[in-house]
Specification:
The protein contains eleven helices and seven strands. With 261 residues, the protein is of the alpha/beta class. The longest helix is centred in the C-terminal third of the chain and has 15 residues. It starts with a strand and ends with a helix.
């Protein structure tokens, strides 16, 4: 059971999400809140596995609430994974949410199966990004690649960069840019050797291009006239060959390595 908190100001929406998630048998709702201040208190009191957070809260918005929570928890904050569930799909909202410390981002019109998948993957330490906004993160990846060489020690400054698992935008507020296991690096020599010894097939390259384009498995299957099961098999092979954990990380690595333009 994934211990989950819902922070959503619309009561009917919150009740509906709770009922839908609880009927799956894998989600345990341990707390609810309708405001940012209530949300902060519930997160501190319950320390859930995953918080499902709306941005448009009536007192303080979800992004500011998340910033405050991450700052107050410091070293222990990352133990609570945060999935932003919102109607906001503009670039500013997406990047601000990841910069504030969100782990995943989903639109409210997602199906129950997709929402459940998002919560489960977030709980496992991955970053789930709604396909409808994936292109925003990939564009940011391209920007961060071109700007990477200019990120040097300087007196002050803030930069937005792309990280992983999947794609996680973090805010760097100092010049001690220490890399950790969440960073997406370029293709290093070891990965390059693996890719050369076991290169992607023509079909895998086709599928990788569609992944970069934001297509899900069903859309890829329809475009290539193959079954969804076949797509899943190819995707697993692509992830293994690129030494990545998920689709978005594969897309970013493909862009940064030149496999896909």
């Amino acid at each position: 059971m994934i211990r989950t908190v819902l922070i959503e100001d619309h009561e009917l929406t919150r009740v509906g999400i709770r009922a839908a998630l609880e009927q799956t048998g894998v989600i345990n709702i341990v707390g609810e809140a309708s405001t940012g201040k209530q949300g902060l208190q519930i997160l501190r009191d319950t320390q859930p596995d995953v918080a499902v957070l709306d941005i448009g809260l009536p007192d303080i918005d979800g992004i500011e609430m998340l910033q405050q929570f991450r700052q107050s928890q410091q070293e222990n904050a990352d133990s609570v994974k945060v999935l932003v569930l919102t109607m906001h799909d503009n670039e500013d909202a997406v990047l601000a949410a990841f910069a504030a410390g969100a782990d995943s981002y989903s639109m409210k019109d997602a199906s129950l199966d997709r929402l459940l998948e998002a919560i489960q993957l977030t709980h496992e330490g991955h970053t789930w990004i709604d396909p409808n906004i994936a292109q925003i993160v990939l564009r940011q990846a391209r920007k961060s690649q071109s700007a990477a060489s200019s990120v040097q020690a300087s007196p002050s400054g803030t930069t937005v960069s792309l990280g992983t698992p999947a794609a996680e935008v973090t805010e760097v507020e100092n010049t001690d840019l220490k890399e950790d296991s969440r960073s997406i690096d370029g293709v290093d020599s070891e990965v390059q050797q693996l890719m050369e010894s076991d290169p992607l097939t023509k079909r895998e390259l086709e599928i990788l291009e569609l992944i970069v384009g934001g297509c899900n498995n069903a859309q890829i299957a329809e475009k290539l006239y193959i079954t969804v099961g076949t797509v899943k098999t190819h995707v697993r092979s692509i992830l293994n060959k690129l030494c990545v954990d998920d689709r978005t990380q594969a897309a970013v690595r493909a862009l940064r390595s030149g496999l896909v333009n």
